[in-house]
Structures are given as structure tokens and as C-alpha cells.
């Protein structure tokens, strides 16, 4: 097929992009979104600070705009993200212990309820593990409410939306390492205890190459009985086209890899300012990386 989304569909995958509501009025942006992608992730509009700016006051306008755009484009929506130590509104940052735990669980419940039936998959918990090389939990205020905060968030999300796929999402987990193995151990424990979890998101913010054990890492999680999703793909460096092809091929090789999301549409839309890590250049033209992905999707 001649678009990312159509080519991914032919291989029973989605191909998505993170999008920003303020850019939906840009015709180049909106056209690329509509024609190339079959899934969207709100880059910021469904985060805690955006949806509950003051305690008990929920603001869904921007998130709703992204959902309605996706519905008009017949695209699915990945919700991002219900519980994350970053981008917490200041009122929540001032909480700790049981007060924070109940505020977080209420937030998960309210937002998942609001988007019930409109979100295909949620990043229920984002980035709960540390980068200390030992697979420790990140020592956030959420973690300090008790080690069971992650499963509590997943249970609340399932209670609010029984049909959405519930994902754990993280970065620097793209190969077999202490951090990804800590996530693996948590997912294995959750599955053994019947804690609701359906998928694991691998953000895959990469430079030049994917880890050599990228596919093997995806496969070991899939073998636990969860879907794997590449959730925030962007690749900087001169080797980016080959690396994008490798990541795409790895997803196609793992049957439970249900799709790929790139973290933005044009290089100028990227949070990695100046790294030019995406598939379209600032003018919206297709890059060599785009062609590498399209060819990988269409191969075989
Ligand atoms: O909306 C305000 C605007 O009103 C204000 O004028 C402006 C300047 O202060 O800030 C704007 O908010 C910014 C927001 O992006 C929207 O542009 C925040 O400051 C800025 O921190 C926020 O950055 C986002 C970052 O997450 C933190 O939430 C990036 O766009 C987004 O790409 C990035 O995405 C994260 C994923 O959610 C999780 N994984 C890592 C990934 C990259 O950091």
C-alpha cells in the first residue's frame, strides 16, 4: 500500500502518531494525520495537569478535540497517560501518602470513565521504573504511597473501562536490560495474580540504532500473554532510516506487536528539538526514513 496506515493495516497492525491539538488547524499537519495514520495518541492533552488542573475540576476539551478528530478520521485513540510522576498538577504534587493515593485513583477513575468506549488502549502507568541499572522502582511520590500503586491504578482503570486495553509504558526498555527485566518481572507477577494488564508499551526513543535484542525483548513480553506496542518511536542520527526499518521489521516479526506510534508527525513537531527524528521533514515532505518504514511494512 502507499501509506503507512494502509500498509500497516495489511499486516494487521496500526500505524499511529502522537498529535498536538493546537496543530490541528495546520492544513499540512491535518492532511498528513488523516492520510497516513490509523491511530493517534494525544501528546499532552490527556495528562494529569491537562485534565485535572485543580482538584476535582476536570477539563477534557483538548482531549475531546483529539478524540473527535480521530473519530472523524476513523482512527483509534491511545490514551496517554492516567498515572505518571511527571506533569502532575501542582495541587497533586503537594500531596503524599494516602491523600495522593486516593487523588491518583480518583483521577484514573474519572478520566477513564470520561473516555470509556473512545480509547482503544490506555497508558495506565507511565515510567514507574528508574534508570539506575538495577531495575529499581522510580522513587516518586506515587511510589512512596506504596509498592502496590501500579496495580491499584490498573484495577481502577479496568473498573472504569472494562474494554480498553490497559498498558504499562516506559522508555529505555527497548532491549534486554535491568530496567526492562524489572518491567518483565512485574508483568509476569501481575498475570500470575490476575492483576488486569493487557499490553506493554515500549517508547523507543532511539539514537542511530535499535538494540540488537529489540525483537527478542518484544517477544519475551508477548510470551507472557500481553500485547506489545511501540508507543513513542523517534530515531535520531544518520542511520535513522535503517533503524526505523529494523524496528518495523521487529514489530512485524512478533505477532502480538499490535502497532507502532511515532512521537510526532514532522521533525518540527518533535520534542527532540533539532534531532530531526521523525518520518516527515518540517515542510511535511517524506524522508528516507518514511520510505524505509513503508518498504518494511510492505515487504514479505
Ligand atoms: O501548553 C503550555 C503552554 O501554554 C506554555 O506557554 C508553554 C511554555 O511554558 O508550555 C506548554 O506546555 C508544554 C507542553 O509540552 C505542550 O507544549 C510543557 O511546558 C512541556 O513540558 C510539555 O512537554 C511534553 C513532555 O512530554 C512533558 O509532558 C512534550 O511535548 C511531550 O512530547 C513529552 O512526551 C513525553 C511522553 O509524554 C512520555 N514519554 C516521554 C516523552 C518525551 O518527553
Automatic annotation (TrEMBL):
<dbReference type="GO" id="GO:0045493">
    <property type="term" value="P:xylan catabolic process"/>
</dbReference>
<keyword id="KW-0378">Hydrolase</keyword>
<keyword id="KW-0119">Carbohydrate metabolism</keyword>
<protein>
    <recommendedName>
        <fullName>Beta-xylanase</fullName>
        <ecNumber>3.2.1.8</ecNumber>
    </recommendedName>
</protein>
<feature type="domain" description="GH10">
    <location>
        <begin position="1"/>
        <end position="296"/>
    </location>
</feature>
<keyword id="KW-0326">Glycosidase</keyword>
<keyword id="KW-0858">Xylan degradation</keyword>
<keyword id="KW-0732">Signal</keyword>
<dbReference type="GO" id="GO:0031176">
    <property type="term" value="F:endo-1,4-beta-xylanase activity"/>
</dbReference>
<comment type="similarity">
    <text>Belongs to the glycosyl hydrolase 10 (cellulase F) family.</text>
</comment>
<keyword id="KW-0624">Polysaccharide degradation</keyword>
<dbReference type="GO" id="GO:0030247">
    <property type="term" value="F:polysaccharide binding"/>
</dbReference>
<feature type="active site" description="Nucleophile">
    <location>
        <position position="232"/>
    </location>
</feature>
Amino acid at each position: 500500500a502507499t501509506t503507512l496506515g494502509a500498509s500497516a493495516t495489511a499486516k494487521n497492525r496500526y500505524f499511529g502518531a502522537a498529535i498536538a491539538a493546537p496543530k490541528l488547524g495546520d492544513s499540512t499537519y491535518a492532511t498528513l494525520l488523516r492520510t497516513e495514520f490509523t491511530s493517534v495518541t494525544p501528546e499532552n492533552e490527556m495528562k494529569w495537569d491537562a485534565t485535572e488542573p485543580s482538584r476535582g475540576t476536570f477539563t477534557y476539551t483538548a482531549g475531546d478535540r483529539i478524540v473527535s478528530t480521530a473519530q472523524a478520521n476513523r482512527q483509534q485513540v491511545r490514551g496517554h497517560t492516567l498515572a505518571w510522576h511527571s506533569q502532575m498538577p501542582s495541587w497533586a504534587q503537594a500531596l503524599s501518602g494516602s491523600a495522593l493515593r486516593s487523588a491518583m485513583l480518583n483521577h484514573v477513575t474519572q478520566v477513564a470513565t470520561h473516555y470509556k468506549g473512545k480509547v482503544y488502549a490506555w497508558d495506565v502507568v507511565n515510567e514507574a521504573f528508574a534508570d539506575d541499572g538495577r531495575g529499581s522502582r522510580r522513587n516518586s511520590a506515587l511510589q512512596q504511597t506504596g509498592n502496590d500503586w501500579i496495580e491499584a491504578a490498573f484495577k481502577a482503570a479496568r473498573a472504569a473501562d472494562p474494554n480498553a486495553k490497559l498498558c504499562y509504558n516506559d522508555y529505555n526498555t527497548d532491549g534486554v536490560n535491568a530496567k526492562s527485566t524489572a518491567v518483565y518481572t512485574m508483568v509476569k507477577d501481575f498475570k500470575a495474580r490476575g492483576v488486569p494488564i493487557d499490553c506493554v508499551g515500549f517508547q523507543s526513543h532511539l539514537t542511530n540504532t535499535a538494540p540488537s535484542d529489540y525483537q527478542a525483548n518484544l517477544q519475551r513480553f508477548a510470551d507472557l500473554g500481553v500485547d506489545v506496542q511501540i508507543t513513542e518511536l523517534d530515531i535520531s542520527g544518520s542511520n535513522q532510516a535503517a533503524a526505523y526499518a529494523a524496528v518495523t521489521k521487529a514489530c512485524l516479526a512478533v505477532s502480538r506487536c499490535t502497532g507502532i506510534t511515532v512521537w510526532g508527525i514532522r521533525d518540527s513537531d518533535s520534542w527532540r528539538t533539532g534531532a530531526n527524528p521523525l518520518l516527515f521533514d518540517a515542510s511535511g515532505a517524506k524522508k528516507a526514513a518514511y520510505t524505509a518504514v513503508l518498504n518494511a511494512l510492505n515487504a514479505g
